[in-house]
Design brief:
This protein has 68 residues and is α+β, with helices and mostly antiparallel strands. It is built from one helix and four strands. The strands form two sheets. The protein has a two-stranded antiparallel ribbon. The longest helix has 12 residues. The radius of gyration is 16 Å and the shape is elongated. 1% of the residues are buried.
């Protein structure tokens, strides 16, 4: 997912890609962990996660490809 994506953009993309009706979208930013690279300390990138709630009776079937 694009780091600066908004809830309406995610909703539109899911509806277009999987041909379902989206009820709501919740977003969370997952902070990158601190890791040691040899002697130096580094940090992994933070990333954004989206939880998509579908309308009643809707489902996404990942087995048949789902539009990919």
């Amino acid at each position: 997912m694009v780091p600066d994506a908004t809830k309406p953009e995610v909703k539109g993309a899911v509806e277009l890609l999987f041909k379902v009706s989206v009820k709501s979208v919740q977003m969370a930013i997952v902070k990158g962990k601190q890791k040691k690279f040899g002697r130096a300390m580094g940090r992994r990138k933070s990333w954004k996660k989206a939880y998509v709630c579908l309308q009643a009776g809707q489902e996404i079937n990942f087995v048949d490809g789902g539009g990919f």
